[in-house]
Amino acid sequence: MRNFLTTVSILFASTAALTAAPINYNINFTLDSGNLLPSSGSFTYDAATPLFTGFIVLWNSTTYDLTAAANSPSTISLPSCLGGATGPAASFALLSQSGCTRSSTPGPFDVHGWSAVAGTTGGLSQFVFQHNDTAPGIYIAVAVDTANLGTTNRSGSGQWSITPTTSAVPEPSTLAMTILAGVLLVAVRRVRH
């Protein structure tokens, strides 16, 4: 019985050591309206923390750092499609579209997608990921000063999807602990026989 408990403890420890590491994602954009599609987008998300890092979108020759906005999204009230998630977990639920998708029959105030605008008014440009279901809504938005980018008005809006670019790979210390657990399992088995 003692050996059985030891074996179970070692298996549990080795399984717990294989927690998910941060995963990098690319954002794939489509254009529904306007005149400019984002040229790239990516972020890293750690579901264990939860925390976004390096959330960057390039649109209209402007780099938008949405990291802080994704870690603290704006909300009117949380849409039910987020399943009660808040903060970065709510942002990831929105971005991964795990429930928050475009309605097949959207009303006049229902919005799901990305949008961006740049122009001469105030010299600001804004980029937004959003889901607004009449009143409940979540927004990942950032505005940047574009006073020196010229006077061309540009806009765009559309849909997105995300694709993981790396799988969760254990850190070297985690891998070492897993190998050690395997060695201990073999040692326990040899002692029993």
Describe the model.
The longest helix has 21 residues, at 172-192. 26% of the residues lie in helices and 35% in strands. It has 2 domains: 1-18 and 175-193, no CATH class; 22-169, no CATH class. It is α+β, with helices and mostly antiparallel strands. The protein has 4 helices and 11 strands; from the N terminus they run H-E-E-E-E-E-H-E-H-E-E-E-E-E-H.
Question: For the terminal residues, how far apart are their CA atoms?
Answer: 14 Å
Number of domains: 2
Detail the poorly predicted runs: 10-18
Helicity level, as a percent range?
25-40%
Q: How are the strands ordered across the major sheet?
A: 2-10-7-8-9-6
Rounded radius of gyration (Å): 23 Å
**Biggest sheet features:** 6 strands, antiparallel
- The average pLDDT value, as a whole number, equals 76
Measured by DSSP, the beta-strand proportion falls in 25-35%
By helix and strand content, what is the structural category?
Answer: alpha+beta
Output the number of helix runs: 4
Count of DSSP strands: 11
Instruction: Tell the overall outline.
Output: elongated
Order of helices and strands: HEEEEEHEHEEEEEH
